[in-house]
């Protein structure tokens, strides 16, 4: 925006325009008054879902937190190629990574800062990849973002992990004041102002208020810098340790989306409950579970009492059951993660964290079952382009379930032309078709683990109808109802 304003400022005092030129100037002016020339991901007018270039955008993300820090360029390309093939459109990564990303060099032996106390960037002239003296830490971040852009993948860019802000016994805080946070965020924002595949995410697995210390001014300093560079309408999310709504409310208009991290401590998080509750909070914002359980993550491994037979690991099914119900309860997207991918486990380089008794390695883990299955959810949602959805439990005219093992979640669009019902168990269900428009309805069963759809031959109209999944050996199903 600043550049456009400068361009207008330097126009000759007397200038005559033809009609075509006036249309171009009007277009530029509309961009100016809209608040952001660069924002690509936006919140829709209903404040319930996301858009890209005016069309519904279903955020299907992978948590590649250590992507800038631990991989070579060749490995980055391989990782992004695989994730592109699997349908991911967002990869979330941290500029100042969690695993000692300040002091421990990246793959090429570079660190982000020359001086930690002053936060002076460690930059060198040039960016020739064949010249180690030229190619610095930030050049490598540039490389990753550009490679993602080539594959139509957005980078959900966290300027810093939360451990660099929130003081704990085992971390080094470098952003101790809002001014430091502001200065750093402004520099990184200016560096990527022309990069169209950036989604800004603040936070990073930490509460904004911790042990009675309010860290929100730090995050607000970063948000202020992003808005000054990109404009007031720039999309900014926050990755919490639990729920964003606990910390940021009406006094933080910079926040574009509310979120929850349902996490890896237990299987029984009723994420649908928190989605419902936070979608009712004001100001209204889209909502997403930005870190549900990870595939192959030990369930609650941190207390030293974990065993394979006892708590076990989160499976691809656990991931599906958490994510589908979060989305059907009103979530605007889905985040997948694999425990050995986010940290890019390679024992020849670094010690893995909390991997239980199983070592997979990231190069094998990127082909895990759940990573392939997430694309089917994205395709299902995009096959129904009306994203103005609401959860509707009254569609279910039989037993709804009582907990994470069996609770059924149903969603439909506001216009009542389709409904999606997630069943975590292959049980018979009764559906009240009167909740949709009174026209003919096509019913099909959607398999979340394969993406296959089984269309029922009979045409339905209204009333309470009974449906049974076609295969009891497949654990979970989606019943799809489409008004014709």
Mean pLDDT: 93
Straight-line distance between termini: 45 Å
Number of DSSP helices? 12
Percentage beta strand: 15-25%
In CATH, the topology of the largest domain is named: TIM Barrel
Please identify the top-level CATH class of the largest domain: Alpha Beta
Strand-pairing-aware structural class: alpha/beta
Main sheet: strand order = 12-9-8-5-4-15
Stretches with pLDDT under 50, minimum 5 residues: 1-39
In total, the number of strands is: 23
Q: Share of helix among residues?
A: 25-40%
- Sheet with most strands: 6 strands, parallel
Write structural notes for this entry.
The protein has 484 residues and is α/β, with parallel strands linked by helices. The chain has three domains: 2-34, no CATH class; 41-382, TIM Barrel; 392-483, Immunoglobulin-like, CATH 2.60.40. Helices cover 26% and strands 19% of the residues. It has twelve helices and 23 strands. The strands form seven sheets. Strands 12-9-8-5-4-15 form a six-stranded parallel β-sheet. Helix 4 (73-85) packs parallel to helix 5 (137-150), helix 6 runs parallel beside helix 7 and helix 9 packs parallel to helix 12 (369-382). It is globular, with a radius of gyration of 24 Å. The two termini are 45 Å apart. Mean pLDDT is 93; it is low at 1-39.
């Amino acid at each position: 925006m600043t550049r456009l304003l400068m361009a207008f400022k330097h126009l000759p005092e007397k200038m005559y325009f033809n009609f075509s030129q006036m249309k171009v100037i009007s277009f530029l002016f509309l961009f100016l008054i809209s608040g952001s020339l660069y924002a690509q991901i936006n919140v829709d007018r209903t404040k319930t879902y996301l858009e890209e270039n005016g069309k519904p955008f279903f955020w299907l993300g992978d948590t590649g937190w250590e992507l800038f820090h631990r991989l070579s360029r060749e490995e980055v390309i391989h990782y992004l190629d695989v994730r592109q093939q699997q349908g991911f459109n967002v990869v979330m990564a941290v500029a100042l990574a969690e695993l000692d990303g300040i002091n421990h060099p990246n793959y090429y032996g570079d660190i982000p800062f020359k001086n930690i106390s002053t936060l002076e960037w460690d930059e060198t002239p040039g960016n020739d990849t064949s010249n180690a003296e030229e190619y610095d830490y930030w050049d490598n971040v540039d490389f990753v973002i550009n490679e993602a852009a080539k594959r139509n993948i957005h980078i959900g860019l966290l300027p810093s992990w939360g451990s660099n802000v929130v003081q704990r016994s085992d971390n080094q805080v470098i952003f101790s004041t809002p001014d430091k946070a502001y200065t750093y965020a402004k520099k990184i924002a200016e560096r990527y102002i022309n990069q169209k595949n950036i989604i800004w995410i603040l936070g990073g697995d930490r509460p904004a208020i911790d042990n009675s210390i309010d860290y929100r001014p730090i995050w607000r300093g970063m948000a202020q810098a992003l808005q000054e560079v990109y404009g007031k309408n720039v999309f900014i999310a926050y990755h919490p340790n639990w729920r964003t709504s606990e910390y940021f409310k009406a006094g933080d208009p910079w926040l574009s989306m509310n979120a929850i991290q349902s996490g890896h401590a237990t299987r029984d998080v009723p994420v649908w409950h928190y989605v419902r509750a936070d979608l009712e909070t004001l100001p209204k914002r889209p909502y997403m579970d930005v870190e549900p359980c990870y595939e192959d993550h030990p369930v609650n491994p941190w207390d030293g009492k974990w065993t394979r037979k006892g708590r076990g690991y989160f499976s691809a099914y656990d991931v599906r059951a958490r994510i589908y119900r979060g989305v059907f309860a009103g979530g605007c997207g889905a985040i997948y993660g694999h425990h050995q991918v986010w940290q890019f486990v390679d024992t020849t380089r670094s010690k893995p964290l909390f991997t239980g008794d199983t070592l997979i390695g990231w190069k094998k883990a990127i082909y895990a079952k759940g990573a392939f299955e997430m694309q089917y959810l994205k395709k299902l949602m995009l096959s129904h382009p009306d994203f103005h959805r609401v959860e509707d439990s009254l569609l279910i005219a039989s037993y709804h379930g009582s907990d994470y093992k069996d609770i059924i979640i149903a969603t439909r669009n506001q216009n009542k032309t389709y409904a999606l019902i997630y069943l975590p168990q292959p049980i018979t269900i009764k559906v009240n078709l009167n909740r949709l428009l009174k026209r003919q309805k096509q019913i099909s069963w959607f398999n979340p683990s394969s993406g296959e759809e089984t269309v029922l031959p009979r045409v339905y109209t209204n009333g309470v109808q009974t449906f049974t999944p076609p295969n009891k050996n497949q654990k979970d199903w989606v019943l799809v109802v489409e008004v014709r």
